[in-house]
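To the team - zinc ion complex, inputs and output below.
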Amino acid sequence: MRIGVFHSKKISRITLQPSAGEYNLFGDTSFIRTVLVGEKISIKVSGSNVLLEQAGGSKTFKKIKFVPRKNHSALKYSPSISNVKSRIYEDGLELTAAKSRLRLVNIVDMENYLSGVIESEGGGGKYLDYYKVQAIMSRTYALKNKKRHRKDKFQVCDGVHCQAYHKKLTHTSKIRQAVKETKGEVLVDVKNNLVTSYFSANCGGQTCDASYVWNTSVSYIESFVDTFCIHTRQATWTKKVSKSSWETFLKKEYNVTEYQIGNLLYNFEQEQRKAFFIHPSLGIPLRDLRKKFRLKSIYFSTHLDGDNVVVEGRGFGHGVGLCQEGAMNMAENGFSYDQIARFYFKDVRVINYYKELYFKQKGGL
Ligand SMILES: [Zn+2]
Ligand SMILES: [Zn+2]
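Output:
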């Protein structure tokens, strides 16, 4: 995989240092030297080229490459820019110039990339089958979106725009085991298309229809009751919002009248998930209220308490697709990763991409 790292940062100079294994350094097509653990190499942008800083005289190239000589070789990336921390990534690196800044592409083995993603996306979940679900979802995403950054000359970026990928795996060998044991496995829908495996932290006890969040429905996503997450950490929350800011927002954005406020606005209940606040004809999507008042989810009820609107909510996140806390609970209770995936996504199958899909697709990987 080719991953654009530090993609959102404007980096013009960086220091690279092997933290494991060793690397061969190339400038364009010529071999420069072997770089060992602890040695530091500094590179900066120079117009449309990249410049290798060396004691015996700096040299410019179109492209500089670090090619690993051993399995699990890793490089420490230390950008010379304030407030950006160093990161360690496995495998190779290609540096070029783009728009007067460095373009850093981590050329990484798929399984090493997925291990880094699963760790970066967080979620403690110490259960192997939980990590396996994460592994097949991340692999499915990576393969489905491998052309997303074609104009940037890499496949996916390291931010939440694609999948968070902020470091190599360090935390637990179970992640690597989960990635290995699901090697090549992806999630497909009834038509054998790779699915977009949406997930959020906690659905609050009922997953959300995709259309409530994005105005578009997805065939393998439907709303259903999830009892696996209701006793967990993020199952419920309460937030107070001042009555005046709540009403000002509704009057300004939705022309809600005083009469409507007095008669219908409070004592709003969601036994089942709804898409709109109060009444569809008022046209106030719950997602707008979530965004404006920074609520943890759209699955909430309201009542008045003096000058405050008390918002009592369930769950954390959009609630569409897989519920992480529910999935963790399922894994803890002995469900397999395949069962967990098929619980949260309707009529999907886990298949081996390389055996069943790769040769049927134009262009392959
Ligand atoms: Zn991206
Ligand atoms: Zn849930």
